[in-house]
Automatic annotation (TrEMBL):
Keywords: Amino-acid transport, ATP-binding, Cell membrane, Membrane, Nucleotide-binding, Transport
Name of the protein: Ectoine/hydroxyectoine ABC transporter, ATP-binding protein
SMART domains (alphabetical): AAA
SUPFAM superfamilies: P-loop containing nucleoside triphosphate hydrolases
PROSITE patterns given in the database record: ABC_TRANSPORTER_1 (PS00211), ABC_TRANSPORTER_2 (PS50893)
Compartments, record wording: Cell membrane
Length: 252
C-alpha cells in the first residue's frame, strides 16, 4: 500500500468504558483518504464516543489509534499537535457569543497555529463566501439562524486546514427546514475530497454521501460496508431491524 492510499485514521481493538458501562468494544476501523465514513446506529450505540476518542477528547482504555501512521494514543504523543490536525463539529455550535463570526473563525489559526491575522482573515473570508456566508463576517452568532451558525462552526473547523474532519450529529439541533443547507455543505466538502467521519441520523444523506457505512450496536461495529451494501442488503439481523424501523418511520 502506498502512502497515498494508507488510512488517514485507523483504530484497532479500541475499548472505552465509563465506570461499569462499556461504551466501545474492540472497535476496528479505517478511514481512507478523501472518503466519507458514516457511523449509524441507535442513540447510545457509541457513535459520538467513537468520534471523541478519535480526537483524543476521551482517553481510550485499550487498543490504539493511528493518524497518518502515527500512533496518537501513545502516551508520548503530543495530543495538542494531534488535535491541530483534526477538525471537529458538534451538535451544539459552540460559537463564542461575544466574538464576531470572523473572530470565532480566526481564533484557532492565529492563537494555536501561529497564522498571521491578515492571512487568517483572508482564508476565513474565502471559506465564508464558499459556504454562502459572505456578508456575515462581522455579525455576532445570535444574529444568525441555526443553520448559519452551524455553517460558521464548519468554517471554523476548516479554517485550520484539517487532515480529518469529524462531524457529530451536526443537524440534530436544527429545525427541519435548516437541515438541507448544512448537508449541502458536507456534499460540497466531499466533492472537494475532504476526508470525513460523521455520526448521523440522516439515513438518506448517509446513503448518498458515504463511501463506507459502519453500523454500531452497543459499542460494537456490528456491520460495515459500502452504502449500497449496508442500506440495500444488510447481512446482520440487528442491522436489518434498525433499518426496517427507519424505513417505517419514513426516514429512508
Amino acid at each position: 500500500m502506498s502512502d497515498a492510499d494508507a488510512p488517514v485514521l485507523r483504530m484497532e481493538s479500541v475499548r472505552k468504558t465509563f465506570g461499569d458501562s462499556v461504551v466501545l468494544r474492540d472497535v476496528d476501523l479505517e478511514v481512507a483518504p478523501h472518503t466519507v465514513t458514516a457511523l449509524i446506529g441507535a442513540s447510545g450505540s457509541g457513535k459520538s464516543t467513537l468520534l471523541r476518542c478519535a480526537n483524543l477528547l476521551e482517553e481510550i482504555d485499550d487498543g490504539a489509534i493511528w493518524l497518518d501512521g502515527e500512533e496518537i494514543t501513545d502516551p508520548r504523543a503530543d495530543q495538542d499537535a494531534v488535535r491541530r490536525r483534526i477538525g471537529v463539529v458538534f451538535q451544539a455550535y459552540n460559537l463564542f457569543p461575544h466574538m464576531t463570526v470572523l473572530e470565532n473563525i480566526t481564533l484557532a489559526p492565529r492563537r494555536v497555529h501561529g497564522v498571521a491575522r491578515a492571512e487568517a482573515e483572508e482564508h476565513a473570508r474565502e471559506l465564508l463566501e464558499r459556504l454562502g456566508l459572505d456578508g456575515k463576517a462581522d455579525e455576532y452568532p445570535d444574529r444568525l439562524s441555526g443553520g448559519q451558525q452551524q455553517r460558521v462552526a464548519i468554517v471554523r473547523a476548516l479554517a485550520v486546514r484539517p487532515r480529518l474532519l469529524l462531524l457529530d450529529e451536526i443537524t440534530a439541533a436544527l429545525d427541519p427546514e435548516l437541515v438541507g443547507e448544512v448537508l449541502n455543505v458536507v456534499r460540497d466538502l466531499k466533492a472537494d475530497g475532504m476526508t470525513m467521519m460523521l455520526a448521523t441520523h440522516e439515513m438518506g444523506f448517509a446513503r448518498e454521501v458515504a463511501d463506507q457505512v459502519c453500523f454500531l450496536d452497543s459499542g460494537v461495529v456490528l456491520e460495515r460496508g459500502t452504502a449500497e451494501q449496508i442500506f440495500g442488503d444488510p447481512q446482520q439481523e440487528r442491522t436489518q431491524r434498525f433499518l426496517k424501523r427507519i424505513v417505517e418511520a419514513g426516514r429512508l
